[in-house]
Amino acid sequence: MKPMTIPTKPIDGQKPGTSGLRKKTKVFMGEHYLENFIESIWTAIGGVEGKTLVLGGDGRYFNDRAAQVILRMAAASGAKKVIVGQNALLSTPAASNLIRQKKTDGGIIMSASHNPGGPDEDFGVKFNMPNGGPAPEDVTDRMVKATQSIKEYKIVESQDIDLSKRGATKLGNMEIDVVDPVKDYADLMERLFDFKAIKAMIADGFTLRFDAMHAVTGPYAKAILGTRLGAPEGSVVNAEPKPDFGGGHPDPNPIWAKDLMDLMMGDDAPDFGAASDGDGDRNMIVGKGCYVGPSDSLAVLAANAHHAPGYADGLKGVARSMPTSRALDRVARARGLDCYETPTGWKFFGNLLDDGRITLCGEESAGTGSDHVREKDGLWAVLLWLNILAKTGKSVQEVMNDHWAEFGRNFYSRHDYEAVDADTARKMMDDLGARLDKLPGEAIHGRTIASADDFAYDDPVDGSRASGQGLRIMFEDGGRIVYRLSGTGTVGATLRVYLEAFSDEPATFGEDPQDALADMIAIADELAGIEERTGRDAPDVRT
Ligand code: VG1
Ligand code: CO
Q1: Whose CA is nearest to atom 4 of ligand 1?
Q2: CATH of segment(s) 409-542
Q3: pLDDT at 335 (0 to 100)
Q4: Binning pLDDT at 50, 70 and 90, where does residue 83 land?
Q5: Distances in Å between the alpha carbon of 29 and those of 148, 208, 432?
Q6: Any ligand 1 atom below 6 A from CB of 283
């Protein structure tokens, strides 16, 4: 089987964002588009010859075709072996686990995560390193460079490989191992958590609903929550991965997981509700009549992780992305743990985890995880919650009430303005950025600004610096507003405004965050001139 060398030319805009390269599916399906990017990944990692990779995706439209192309390109460039999830499926955390367990040279995950899928929606590709984590910025920078000078790529001609059957096969000299996407991951979960206690709780009548949102976690949730933990039929819904996620956004938040929210707020609510996103790395946690914000969930998990066998020895330290609320910091302070603040995106946690500085970390966007893999992990968070509930005997609402009573409440919300004109958004950020120096001391709606900056991060492990990571405005009363432009969207710009206000007044703990943050919301608009500049008088999504 002789590799063909196909001449090509650089294609504009092949620049990975917060998490891999995401574009409209039709763009990815365009001539040479996928091929150029894959070849550029090979260049960025010093070639793929003799290497072993993991390959899988979230099952979205084009996932199956892209897998065949990637296999043919890996074979043409001399890869030794590719381990593929059956039907080219792998959740992001399961892929991270396989990369680590099988000691491979990395892996390719085909996913645009929480973005909708289908011929008119989004597709994506990301490369993970041998540690199982997303490629850091120096590697993605090399990818971008390679896309800008690419002249040719190599590919072999072949029939499609049958990825529906498990087992070993060959493509030219390259081995292909089609594996059960679930088993190794489920075994890992069973080692970390007290499955006996969770099983007993469920057998005792504890009820739950997991909404897989027609995305990749369906098979994982059925195997773990159903088969291994005994949750009855009907506990896992929308469990079959569909190429268009049933037409919805596979984004586990109260807007896109509305059915689950309605159920959990109704009279017949089960004890526990959860959902995950397209590629299985995010989570939403809901109790009976009680939605748990992701930043709070992270803080609760940090405070209670010792209830799970995998974390019984305590945590080495914790980390959160900068826009995530500082509820976690309060737990860290009380427990004497180091707490790191990183830019948005999981790639920034990798060094801290590898260096043994932290055990647990998370983001406000419904991503939490630990050192068990190098990605955020939706089902992991669900299982840790279930483990905590089983061990403490508390309801979700009781866990939250006790948490706020001990640490106070960081009211928090993120407001997203989607598909804003990119130049308008950029100019708004630039103008606000230019005024930051003058803001401290200014009083607005009765609150005084204590400090303001453009967040930059110096990685304590490798010394690399990431700047321009979001504008932070801190208030004297502990409140905070952060402005950032999304790095995962595919249309125009998405402005994210992150709002936070702290209260240690128990009478306020039950308030709706949108009410508790009303002042901050008004201040955020006034400071940046959101309505005036974008014409939007309200965000598209509030989480
Ligand atoms: C968003 C989230 C960020 C997350 C990223 C990838 O990025 O804010 O916290 O790490 O998505 O998540 P941005 O740049 O759009 O704000 V996933 O589950 O979509 O891979
Ligand atoms: Co995701």
Answers
A1: 345
A2: 3.30.310.50
A3: 96
A4: very high
A5: 19, 39, 38
A6: no
